[in-house]
Amino acid sequence: MASVLKYDELTLSLSILTVALFLGRKMMEPQSLAHPMLLGRQVEVAPVRKKGESAVYRNFGVGMGSPLPTRPLTRPCTVLDFMPDDVTEVRTLWNTQITNAQLKERIKALSLGFLHTAGLQPRESNVLLLLDDSFEFLLTDLALASLSIPTLTLTSLPLLTPTIETYPPTAIVVAFSMLDETLELIHEGEDHTVPVIIVVGDQNNISPEKSRKSGIKIHRWDDLVEGGVREGAEDGSDGLDGVQAPAPNDVFTVTFTGLENGQPQGVQLTHVNVTAGVAALQHIFPMSKAFSPDDTILSSHSLTTPFGRSMAYTALLKGCNFATLPSTSVLNPQPPTLDELIRASENEQIPSPTVLVISTAVFVQVANAVLNQAQGNLLYSYARRHKQHALNSGTTGKNTIWDRLVFDGARKKALGRLGGSLDRVLITGDSLPSALLIPSRIALPIPTVRTCVHPVAAGPLLASHPLDLQYFPDCETAAITLEQTAHLGPPTCNVEIKLVGVDDTVVDDGKVDPVGQMYIRGPSLGQAVPPTSERAADGWVKAGLLSSVATNGTFKAQAV
């Protein structure tokens, strides 16, 4: 027995080394960025359901008994409250550097120009915006909102003629490149109401000549701003004292997105709808990565869409720099591409983007470009294996040794200065194939949120957790077409979702994710124009999406 317990110094040293290596490996094992319990239950589920329907799902952070959030501030608000006085930093909106105080002065000046030069009437007029995304679009939008004058926007030019014929505007704010076509449409129209034309970008000052020839009042947008500045200086008062301030339930805008039987179809948004959309967007990333004045947001969503408008106003509220891709143009639309994204990020007039709001297709192009560059490095295979091991443990990051040796250089070569500044990504559009989850997380190890947006909603319907790095290759649903796509997360904080047309036996069995038609309800949803029977008495709207829901409350969805 005594001989068994004998040991020499070598045995002792090896034993200590073995224990140290074991403990060191355990201590160095990467920890999951999100607790499994947090990801295991992401929704609050109603205790009962109707036959043929799923239960009603809500975001877990809201709970089943609480009212859905309608505003990002503590008080009732409109879009005019998205310029808080306590945010004093200079921010860049497209190519214009401006503070909130200066922006409010410009809004006031343009509002006075609309009232006294263009002759618009608060709460009576409506204005069609034929502008591409720009600082002028945003300023016009806010100035008209301050006068409680609804705006009309189009997502494509083929909607122009039926919209003017069906909903004749009091005034049209039009880009100079579209002026001649707009005047021709007005002359050919059967309606005898002749709108006022306000031209943006008329640098040659030829509007008076066109006005005399056409018999239509044509004003330069810059003249309205300059006239408002002069009037405000001469008056010495606010100049808008007699104008009633907009209320949260006032109509803010009407966006037309398509045609049905020759009639324009769209959605009407109130201030509450937009503020609810901003409330959902402002906390879509974790608190450590929340939007701040240090951020620059580059979006691929036009301001003519409800979601694009909410994204811009989220940047306005948080003091972020903001710009959109040229492909968002309504006047000259183009499909977004990686090359366009890189060119836009190289614009020296705006800080390098830290947040991208892009489609799934462009996101895949970005990830593939980085991986293609990284494959030329001799350490690529070894680095990828270690990055994937960290992902399997639920953690990721761009400050690892493998990023410094391999992927940082690849990102900068593939994306230019965007590769060094990019910090978060918001993905919209089609669902991401599940097979691309791991490669994209290796290429872009940053918080990435996959969302589901809808034409009637100012905010996203679904949003995945930015730190959810789970991967379920064998996840089975009752619809084969949904099996190979990544989930889009739970409902956002102010949306309720249920599935209609589900198989009750599948729901009761619980072995396969149930599938049905998605119905949505919440304060971020606008009212259809013209009104339809799609909205039920209790507020449910058919989303036109085939969807499945997993046991943890994450949804998959695709258009039908």
Compact overview of the structure:
Helices cover 35% and strands 19% of the residues. With 560 residues, the chain is an alpha/beta fold.
Q: What does this protein look like?
A:
The chain is built from 19 helices and 22 strands. Helices cover 35% and strands 19% of the residues. The longest helix has 20 residues, at 9-28. α4 crosses α5 and α10 (271-282) crosses α11. The mean pLDDT is 88. It has a domain at 84-90 and 98-272: 3-Layer(aba) Sandwich (Rossmann fold). Strands 9-8-7-5-6-10-11-20 form an 8-stranded mixed beta sheet. It has 560 residues and is an alpha/beta fold. β3 and β4 form a beta hairpin. The radius of gyration is 27 Å and the shape is globular.
How many whole angstroms does the radius of gyration measure? 27 Å
Q: How much of the sequence is in beta strands?
A: 15-25%
| Overall mean confidence score, pLDDT | 88
Helix-residue proportion: 25-40%
Low-confidence stretches: none
The gross shape turns out to be globular
Number of helices: 19
SS content category: alpha/beta
**Total strand segments:** 22
Name the features.
single chain; 560 residues; alpha/beta; Rossmann fold; eight-stranded mixed beta sheet; six-stranded mixed beta sheet; 19 helices; 22 strands; 35% helix; globular
Task: Outline the fold blueprint.
Elements: H1 2-5, H2 9-28, H3 36-40, E1 43-45, E2 57-59, E3 91-93, E4 96-98, H4 100-116, E5 127-130, H5 135-146, E6 151-154, H6 160-166, E7 171-175, H7 179-188, E8 196-200, H8 207-214, E9 218-220, H9 221-235, E10 251-260, E11 263-270, H10 271-282, E12 296-299, H11 306-318, E13 321-324, H12 338-345, E14 355-359, H13 360-374, H14 380-392, H15 401-415, H16 418-421, E15 424-428, H17 437-443, E16 448-452, E17 462-463, H18 480-483, E18 496-500, H19 504-509, E19 515-521, E20 527-529, E21 541-549, E22 555-559
Parallel strand pairs: 5-6, 5-7, 6-10, 7-8, 8-9, 12-13, 12-14, 14-15, 15-16
Antiparallel strand pairs: 1-2, 3-4, 10-11, 11-20, 16-17, 18-19, 19-21, 21-22
Helix pairs in contact: 4-5, 4-9, 10-11, 13-15, 13-17, 14-15
